[in-house]
Amino acid sequence: MEPFIRHDQVIFIEKQMKQIIDGQQKHLPKSVMRALTEEAHFKIEAQFIRLTEEQRQLIDFTRYENKEMYLEQIKACELDFPVVTLAELKKLLPKYKKLKVPEELAANTKRSYLGFDDVRSHQKVIVAEIAGELCAIAGHFIDKHQKNICAFCGCTNEVVYFTAKTHARDPKNPDYYKTISHLICKDSEVCNAHLTDLTKLHDYMEEVLKK
Ligand SMILES: [Zn+2]
User: Fold this and answer.
1) How far is the CA of 75 from the centre of ligand 1 (A)?
2) What does residue 68 show for φ and ψ, rounded to 5 degrees?
3) Is residue 173's pLDDT more than 90?
4) Cβ(208)–Cβ(180) under 8 Å?
5) pLDDT at position 121, please?
6) What angle do CA 27, 29, 30 make, to 5 degrees?
7) Which Gene3D superfamilies match (predicted)?
8) Exposed/middle/buried for 27, CB within 10 Å: 0-12, 13-18, 19+?
9) Taking Cα atoms as reference points, which of 147, 181, 176 lies closest to residue 161?
10) In the predicted model, is pLDDT for residue 104 greater than 90?
């Protein structure tokens, strides 16, 4: 089958399956398990705007005795994150001419967004696909050396304080551009492993990029 599942949806489905498996291991009463199963089934379907009959069957975990096998099927239909070339980065972030995607990240195509630190410019770079278009922002960051809630994935992980400049003037100081800061996961691959909803990431990027 053609890939049709985004990375955040794969993570979402994995989390739902974990709850079901946990429930089975705890030997929850049948009625509770039935309610859990129905809810998970509903939530997974609600992740998708449109499904063909074949796709609907594939995401229906109740058809699989073995949940591991189900997750394998899901992963086999995961969409790839686009390969971000040097030329593309130059086009997206013309101010930072020598940006390079670290090799260890370039090989992985299963993610919701690409995030890496550029040592040369002391910037964190974030690349995501919004409405089918590749977008990128760069901003400086302060390592907080502590765990806190990430503004993108909502999970408690090692965070940095990330600040990006928008194209809007700062109302308090019109000589400067407004900046927006958030605590976000220090390691974007960790963030990707928790991200089940792209809204906050995309809203933030759109606000930074708005002209
Ligand atoms: Zn995160």
Assistant:
1) 21
2) -65, -40
3) no
4) yes
5) 84
6) 105
7) 1.20.1280.250
8) exposed
9) 181
10) no
Q: Quick one: pLDDT at residue 97?
A: 79
* pLDDT attached to residue 193: 97
Rounded CA separation 72/161 (Å): 36
Tokens of 102: 């670290």
Residue 159: name the closest of 188, 136, 139 by CA: 188
Residue 31 confidence (pLDDT) above 90: yes
- 176 or 128: which leads in pLDDT: 128
CA 175 – CA 171 distance, rounded (Å): 9
How many angstroms separate the alpha carbon of residue 187 from the centre of ligand 1?
8
Residue 63: C-alpha distances to residues 23, 42, 99, 111, 179 (Å):
18, 14, 46, 27, 49
For residue range 35-90, list pLDDT tens digits in order: 999 999 999 999 999 999 999 999 999 999 899 999 999 999 999 999 998 899 99
The count of other CB atoms within 10 Å of the CB of residue 29 is: 9
SS3 assignment, position 182: strand
* Number of C-beta neighbours around residue 97 at 10 A: 11
- Give the chain's mean pLDDT: 94
The residues placing their C-beta within 5 Å of ligand 1, an ion, are: 150, 152-153, 185, 191
